[in-house]
Amino acid sequence: MLSVIIISCLLAFASGKPCNTDGSNSQLHLSLNKNLLRSLETQQGLPNPSVHLALRLSNTHNHAKEGAHLDKLKNNLHNDIQSSLSNSQSVVGLMALYTLALKSSCYDLNTITFTVSEKSETLLIHLKKQMELEKEHIALSHRPLTNYYQYSLGVLALCASGIRVNNHVSNKLIKAVEHDYFKHGESESIDTYAMAGMALQCVKEAGFHGQNAAELDTALNKIKQKLLAAQRSDGHIGNEFSTGLAVQALLAMGSQVEECAASMEAMRTDARNNTYHNPMAISQILPALHQKSYLTVKSKQCQNEDNTLVLEPVDPVVVLPSKTKVNVKVKVVVSSGATALYSVDAPVGSSLLEVLELLKGANVNFTFEKESSLWGPFLSVVNGEQARQSDRRYWKLSSDGAALSEGVNDFKIMTAQNITITNTSY
Ligand code: B12
Fold first, then answer.
1. pLDDT interval class at 371 (50, 70, 90)
2. Distance 406 CA to ligand 1 centre (A)
3. Which of 63, 183, 210, 268 is 20 to 30 A removed from 312 (C-alpha atoms)?
């Protein structure tokens, strides 16, 4: 038996596939694929272009459901982007994801238009203009209007759609790599290095960067080294949620699948432990598990696709609040440094959002507001004080001194703890 396993591993290795003796990996990937498809039915708010992209990069498909979702993107998401453009808000990341989602469905991008000041222009022209505004903002203040993750998404979406990326635009990304500008709060943003890696690899392969080829290569090498250096002993690159994008980037930049085997296994272990319950998280890891990257959208063909992905009906699960309660202390630190302390007993398994709602209803002078995003509710206002992207501030979440790796809706309270919510600049 052992020799059969070893031989099948060697064969898998030789064919470039990670060792998989019993097909359990494919079963796991299929179940993630189904969870992602199922998320289309329960999703609230805007249709998610990142989820669409991941479904389209999968090996198995449900054409009816993917087609219906594409229609929703073209209506609801389109209208949302249109109103942001009309209000001069920068939406480069969302536009880029919309572009990649349409491209992954082989949709003719030239038929998608937006109207601003009574002038109708295509999505790609608008994206190009948005990138120019971002670039000018970097030239003035060393920061994009949004962030370098979205700036990279913009470069990738234009490049993968066959649009020549202005050298000045890609140079700004190269310089940002050179100067270590990619931060997430106080730490390095592995997600941003990964997205920049895919974007610059696309630029390199398209031959758009004639004059500065050496600088482009230096930046790509640096990104690769950053990603490899961020690999932990358990295989994760950065954390559980950046590993998918990091593996995508390494594959796009020419790493062999076997070199990423430990990171892929780490993600599979996370998936078995139900770490990836947020559809956004699945959408970033699933392409990597399928050994694909967002860059593969560039050459995506949609003929002769599989159409076998079916969803079995699932019994609705009603989760009753636990009778056991734990004490949660919540400390709020506003921008002046003043603090306020609250305490509440919450059922075990409550989300942090539910805990904050309990506090809000308890008449203890605690209030909060949230904004919706692709990752779910983002805490934006606490006790009347706003922490805004335009002021480079956010409400940072920590538990017992350690920064949370999930947001208010996903983080579950299992034990008594001290939560700190700090108005932080970045
Ligand atoms: C940039 C960024 C930030 C910036 C956003 C502002 C800015 N400069 O634009 C800042 C530094 C404020 C930030 C904060 C946080 N972030 Co953040 N962020 C990102 C990053 C790198 C890119 C997001 C983006 O622009 N997406 C593209 C656009 C098109 O999508 P979008 O949904 O419209 O983008 C908005 C939201 O994503 C929102 N946002 C950013 N982070 C988070 C986190 C959560 C949980 C939510 C609900 C929303 C949200 O800000 C974006 C810009 O407006 C992602 C990386 C990734 N893999 O996605 C991490 C990422 C989403 N963040 C993460 C986390 C954990 C946080 C924090 C909870 C950290 C903390 N301990 O406080 C806080 C959010 C707290 C809160 N107030 O609710 C995790 C989420 C993992 C998860 N399972 O939920 C990610 C995946 C990074 C990682 N690998 O760990 N983030």
1. very high
2. 9
3. 268
- Strand ranges across the sheet with 385-386: 368-373, 376-382, 385-386
Q: What is the pLDDT of residue 8?
A: 45
- The verdict on the CB of residue 189 being under 6 Å from ligand 1 is yes
Kindly report, residue by residue over 35-86, the tens digit of the pLDDT: 999 999 988 889 999 999 999 999 999 999 999 999 999 999 999 999 999 9
Burial of 79 (0-12, 13-18, 19+ CB in 10 A): exposed
Q: Is 246 in the pocket of ligand 1 (CB under 6 A)?
A: no
Paired with 136 in beta bridges are none
Q: Quick check: 415 pLDDT over 80?
A: yes
Query: Phi/psi of residue 197, each to 5°?
Result: -60, -45
C-alpha distance from residue 228 to each of 100, 137, 257, 295 (Å):
26, 31, 14, 19
* 94 neighbors 48 (Cβ within 8 angstroms): no
Place of tokens 């209030």: 367
Alpha-helical segments (H) within 207-242: 213-229
pLDDT at 388: 84
Domain limits of the chain? 2-299, 325-425
Give percent of the chain above pLDDT 70: 94
Give the pLDDT of residue 315. Answer: 83
Question: What dotted CATH number matches 2-299?
Answer: 1.50.10.20
Q: What is the pLDDT of residue 32?
A: 98
Question: Using a 6 Å cutoff on CB, does residue 235 contact ligand 1?
Answer: no
- The C-alpha atoms of residue 133 and residue 141 are separated, in whole angstroms, by 12
Q: What are the tokens at 195?
A: 């997205």
Q: In this structure, which CATH number among 3.30.930.10, 2.170.130.30, 3.40.50.620, 3.40.50.2000 belongs to the domain 325-425?
A: 2.170.130.30
Q: What is the pLDDT confidence band of residue 419, given thresholds at 50, 70 and 90?
A: very high
Nearest CA to ligand 1 atom 43: 407
